[in-house]
Design goal:
Belongs to the BolA/IbaG family. One of its GO terms (biological process) is protein maturation. This is Bola-like protein. InterPro entries: BolA, BolA-like_sf, Mt_Fe-S_assembly_factor. This protein is of the alpha/beta class. It has one domain: 2-Layer Sandwich (GMP Synthetase, Chain A, domain 3), CATH 3.30.300. The strands form two sheets. Strands 3-4-5-6 form a four-stranded mixed sheet. A hairpin with a 2-residue loop joins strand 1 and strand 2. It is globular, with a radius of gyration of 15 Å. The termini are far apart.
Length: 118
């Protein structure tokens, strides 16, 4: 995993470049280019993954606990045909609606959503 160093005052802050690298998720895709996460580091990752998988039927989905394993912050990347007719804001609203029972317990959420290009 690649990291960038950013200075905030006197302390460096590591930022995961993969979170901001949308090119992977933006490429043209079809169902044969499916990219669903296979390994989970925490039970929380697996539960969030299962919720999104059942509601969105995505062709690409990755859920990472970026809080060091305590379940207070997640990075989610998802590509689904259900997003095709929605703006980015509406895509995020849909994901937030699906996760509405969990989000209040979290400190933060990093979310990347993408339409399936035909």
């Amino acid at each position: 995993m690649a990291f960038a160093q950013v200075r905030t005052g006197n302390r460096p802050l590591s930022i995961d470049k993969q979170i901001y690298n949308r090119r992977e998720l933006c490429t043209d895709s079809d169902s044969s280019n499916s990219s669903l996460q296979q390994k989970f580091d925490t039970k929380g990752e697996q539960e969030v993954f299962a919720l999104l998988l059942s509601e969105l039927q995505p062709i690409a989905l990755e859920v990472k606990d970026v809080s060091g394993g305590c379940g207070s912050m997640y990075s989610i990347r998802v590509r689904s045909e259900k997003f095709n007719s929605l703006t980015t804001v509406k895509q995020h609203m849909l994901v937030n609606q699906i996760l509405k029972e969990r989000i209040p317990q979290w400190h933060g959420l990093q979310l990347v959503t993408e339409k399936v290009k035909k």
